Hints:
InterPro entries: Amidohydro-rel, Guanine_deaminase, Metal-dep_hydrolase_composite, Metal_Hydrolase, Metallo-dep_hydrolases. GO terms for molecular function: guanine deaminase activity; zinc ion binding. Keywords: Hydrolase, Metal-binding, Zinc. By secondary structure, this protein is an alpha/beta fold. The chain has 2 domains: about 5-70 and about 390-470, Urease, subunit C, domain 1; about 75-380, TIM Barrel (Alpha-Beta Barrel). The chain has 15 helices and 19 strands. Strands 1, 2, 3, 4, 5, 16, 17, 18 and 19 form a 9-stranded mixed sheet that branches.
Amino acid sequence: MVETSHIYYGTIVHTLSVKNLEIIQQAVLVVSNGIIVKLDRNVKDIDAYISSASCTNYVLHRLGEHEFLIPGLVDTHAHAPQYVFAGSGMDLPLMDWLNTYTFPSESKFKDEQYAQDAYAKTVHRFLRNGTTTCSWFATIHLAACKRLVDTIHDLGQRAYVGKVNMDQNSPDYYVEASTQASLDDTRLFIDYTKAKAGHDRLITPVVTPRFAVSCSTPLMRGLADLAKEYRLPIQSHLCENPDEIKFACSLFPDCKNYTDIYQQHGLLGPDTYMAHCVHMTDDEINLLATTQTGVAHCANSNFSLQSGVCDVQRLLSHGIKVGLGTDVAGGFSPSILDAIRSGFWASKMKKVIERDMHGNSDYVCLQPSELLFLATLGGAQVLGLQDLIGNFVEGKAFDALWIDADRGNVDLIGDLTIFQKLEKFLFNGSADNILHVYVQGRRVSGVPDDENDLASSGDTLNHGVALDHTTKPSI
């Protein structure tokens, strides 16, 4: 059977680096078996272009005047069980918030049916908001963690999934039976997830000590050994809140600082990424840079839980990989568009703080193109997926969003450039502007009227855009 290629013709927007935004008009993007096999620029006549090609089966997708493709959004930090109370319980700082809202809510996931129902809504919502790749924290419950993996697999998201580890300083109703039980269940979860991922490998298990406060030395060292044995990534939390930092350092007095706790337990490195990193000393910044550890920037959560303002430019200036995270439910929104906007305001706030302290400030705030980078290629770099996703380079997977910038709450008035349309989508847009969501070439979400058909179909559907189905020589 001859594979059908999909040809996308129109405007493409992506980043090649944090400082390099590329807008390609009259672009031809050819996808085969979910992989980008060709990207051509400045093609004025798509029909003539296709006629000169020499393959057989293809489907042509023409983007409209106000439409463009961007890479799929990457969420480097989200808590799947916390979506059930996202948007509520925002009155307390981190440590009180965990005990009052988070741990009671997560403990409910010992009920496997409850977990399955909650996770179906959660993953669906993240996909609908354009998150094609997500790094998930689950709970301590092995059975429920498996249900999350099943749900992600069925809905087609690319994901890192972690069974959470907690063997100390946790409520009696939400703590693992023993350190060995935690490690044994983690091994079972890793084996289950790797088997479930199969040949497409869209799902990856990630070793997930919740944070140093809730993990003993034997547990952290055991998790580091598992990560090394299976060659897996590691995720956790770091320097989010002053009270958390003080508590963590009191538990490990022989370590120089909070970051050094993870270093001394073998948990930092190129395959590790830490959420938040708000209150970092120079020594800690240098340690992240030296170990090539990445950072998930979760500005909404940092504001909502009164944790502080992360200086992303400081991290980037040290060569540290940075991506965006929603941190649901510390952050109240499941959309990376919100993370972009929160990151924008956090950057502006750093400038205001510097100006108030020094009377003036030459601090350079994050620009829209840099925020798009953090939401796509930057996030891919944090997860070690930069050679697979993050932009539209030939050979990468086609993880993409088809955007209609003149839809929903966005009104395009007058003669706007493509960059202005991109800005309006980033700052005013919503899921209403996302016509199609693709993961590895398969359409997994999109405008609501066709969502019921998505579970069993990878076909591209027509929502009023020009779409040609042709059987002629193709690319």
